[in-house]
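Predict the structure of Kinetochore protein Spc24.
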Amino acid sequence: MLLDEDPATLIQHTVSNFNIHGDKNALGRINDSLSTLQQARDLRLRDAEHALKKLSRQLATLENHHAETLSSHSSADHASQILALDTQKFRVAKTAADLEIEGDRLEQEIETLKMKLSELEDQGIEGGEGERGRRELEDETLLRLKIYRSLGIDLESNNAGSYSKAVIRNNQKGDVHVVNMDPKFSRYFYANYFWQTM
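Done. Here is the predicted structure for Kinetochore protein Spc24.
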C-alpha cells in the first residue's frame, strides 16, 4: 500500500512533483530586490534628513539675523535721522551760498582796492626836493601804510629804511602770516601774494 512506504520518501516524491525550485529562486530574487530597495530608501532617507537638518539650521540663522535686524532698525529713528540729515544738508547749502556771495563781494572790494593802489602808485612823488617834496613823500608813505593797515597788513622796516617784513592778518579766518620780503622778488609778486593771503 501507499501508506506502507517511508513518509520521507513520500514527502520527497511529493516535493519533487511540485517543482518549487523556480519559485524559490524567484522568491530569493524578490528578497534581494526588496533588500536593495530598502537600502536605497534608507540612503535617500538619510540624505533627505541631512539636507533637512542643514536647511533647518540655515533657516534658524536667517530668522535670528532677521530678528536682530528688525530689533536694531527702528522706523522712527530712521525717519528722524533722515530729517536731521535733510536739515543739515539745507543748512550747509545755505552757508555755501552765503559764503559764495561774500566771496564775490570781497573779490569786488579787492579789485577796487587794487585799482586805488595802482592809481596811487602811478601818481608817484610830486615835487622832489626841498621841504615840500619831503612832506609829499612822507604823506605818500603814510597813505600807503594806512591803506595796508586797513587791509590787515603791517609793514616793518629794517635799519636801512626799507621794508623787510610784512605781517598779514585775516580777521575772518583768524590767520596771521609773516612774510620776509626779499628784494630779488618784484613788488608785483608781493602784491599778488598779499591779495591771495587775504
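The chain is about 75% helix and 10% strand.
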